[in-house]
Amino acid sequence: xxxxxxxxxxxxxxxxxxxxxxxxxxxxxxxxxxxxxxxxxxxxxxxxxxxxxxxxxxxxxxxxxxxxxxxxxxxxxxxxxxxxxxxxxxxxxxxxxxxxxxxxxxxxxxxxxxxxxxxxxxxxxxxxxxxxxxxxxxxxxxxxxxxxxxxxxxxxxxxxxxxxxxxxxxxxxxxxxxxxxxxxxxxxxxxxxxxxxxxxxxxxxxxxxxxxxxxxxxxxxxxxxxx
Length: 227
Known about the structure:
single chain; mainly alpha; rod-shaped
């Protein structure tokens, strides 16, 4: 079909108009996007990314670091309290203390200052109790040597001084000690030496101490009733 020159010009003008409209619309959209990018505030987003990167770096360092040694406990825990014991607890505490004094303290440390009447001296008994607790704590399998060093250089010398003061008036009757507070028998079946663990009244003394304590059942019932 033959096109007239006028029709061709009209068609060309229409195509140019549509193209200009499309181009103008595209340019307007692009301009809007550019303005949005230029006007955006990326400070918060950048700060957030930096924080995440910092946390990741810290986590990596912690994973690469060697395991930290456990902090040393501050002390051996609560020392046994002689004033708050029922019969069973009292017997257990006596057994624990007597075993340590007889097998450790007397033969290894205290032979020069020991007296068989030691258990009759209440303040000495109390101090030996916490000294015993500290000794066991010092010789735990995981204990550093500083614990034992402190026991030997600080705590045992302190209690040894108390022991000397408490027992200075006890022993064999002599010209220098005419009336011992607790006399050590020198003759007969009751004869004792300074290195003896205790005089023959120990078992009766412990039994009497245990007997005067509250029965475990009565103690529990007393707590339950709120008395």
